[in-house]
Amino acid sequence: MTIGIIGLGLIGGSMAIDLKNALDTIRLVGYDANEHHRTKALALGLVDHVVENPEALSACHVIILAIPVNHIPAVAVHMLDVCSDNTIILDAGSTKGALCKAIAQHPKRKNVVAAHPIAGTENSGPEAALAKLFAGKTNIICEKEKSSAEALQQALLIFDTLGMHTIYMDAEEHDKHVAYVSHLSHVSSFLLGLTVLDIEKDEKNIATLAGSGFASTVRLAKSSPDMWAPIFEQNMEYLSQALQEYIIHLQRFQYHLLKRDRTELHKTMQEANAIRRILQGIENKNQK
Amino acid sequence: MTIGIIGLGLIGGSMAIDLKNALDTIRLVGYDANEHHRTKALALGLVDHVVENPEALSACHVIILAIPVNHIPAVAVHMLDVCSDNTIILDAGSTKGALCKAIAQHPKRKNVVAAHPIAGTENSGPEAALAKLFAGKTNIICEKEKSSAEALQQALLIFDTLGMHTIYMDAEEHDKHVAYVSHLSHVSSFLLGLTVLDIEKDEKNIATLAGSGFASTVRLAKSSPDMWAPIFEQNMEYLSQALQEYIIHLQRFQYHLLKRDRTELHKTMQEANAIRRILQGIENKNQK
Fold this sequence. Notes:
- The structure is a homodimer.
- By secondary structure, chain A is of the alpha/beta class.
- Chain A is built from eleven helices and eight strands.
- In chain A, helix 3 runs parallel beside helix 4 and helix 6 crosses helix 9.
């Protein structure tokens, strides 16, 4: 089986490592719009071959789109146009509404599996690729009923090989949920980082006081703007709702703070402590 | 040498473990207003003895105050009143302005060293005490010039034994800096947790999508309200400034988001990426 990977960064590269290690008989062919990424991915042995244009992948059995979400809808449509009737196309994008809309009327819609394997690090590029990045994590497939049985079977073979647990969801429901549990935490981290960088201009050496708690909270501010700007833009409607709720919570806290209302501050934090339950769930998942 | 520890939770307990392991000849006597903490600390072997009132520590050579910051100023004044002229008093509070103001006119001011050893976890109580919690971390001493040479020497012996690197700072400067690099990240985390808990009421199973990025950003939301409500209240002026700046940054981001202005979103995140430098500094410190 030949698998084509479009996008040889953290996600595409990490998938390549695990697929190659697990499946002896597959051949991995890669494409990336960035020439440096192509050269690097080949040098690192992430893929067996690279090609210089995506059309050269048209005969692959499966094509995985691991590119920024703003490119996924158009590339998915283009690849459907140029590929054989049997080529299965998967994606790994963090938003699903735009892709599902773009391919909705395509005669080969059933060859696409709209997926979101939830895994990543704050690093990017082929050098950031890691073995077992996906193991034990959750994968989401949207609009399952619009993919053919064969396409779903191929997709599950791949996600199962990566060690993922697949669940199914409506595309809009997916986009709303990830706005809250993934996109918002990136926004909160980026802006916390910026706030501290700003004050540092006036208060030299302020960073010497930063400890491991700060490091944990701000870690996602290292994430790639090339990847995240398109995600935020594409998920604008749900993310702006989530962000608005977050700002309202912060402003209410600010109000209690200005009044030095320790009782209300305490109550708010005690409510937030219930997050332990969700964190425990994440830990259990990662230990599986 | 006899060291008295008032407050047998995460901080007092962790100090006790390291001091006991390092200094053969000391005797550790503990007090905690919470009877359960006293019993537990003794059962865990954190201290050699416990006493039932803080006055019973008046003959100690050194007394460490490891209690919530709202109690520190009054307890410091009280212990100065009841202790011998030679007893040195240290504290471990996250705010320093209120303590320094409360003891400023006390005839035995020179016996106090106002300190902030920057270390902790999101857990609390004697059971949360850890060996080496302070090793390699930064300790801040404020108003050094108002402590006697002997008091400073005793304090440094203790903080050096814990493996800390001590720096000196003005109390107001300290409170402003920690508002940005510590207190604000706790607030951002508590309210992020609350935002997600809120939406979860309407969107069942949303938490199944949360991954390690969310876990990292929201980890501090597990922190103790009993510890943090008094810190926030005491550092209200600087924390409310920091929080206001954070909210303004979030609102500006929200504005660019609503306009789907990918260029501005990208620019903002790219600026935030400079946080890598500060994070690298924290990592280097923790590896020392």
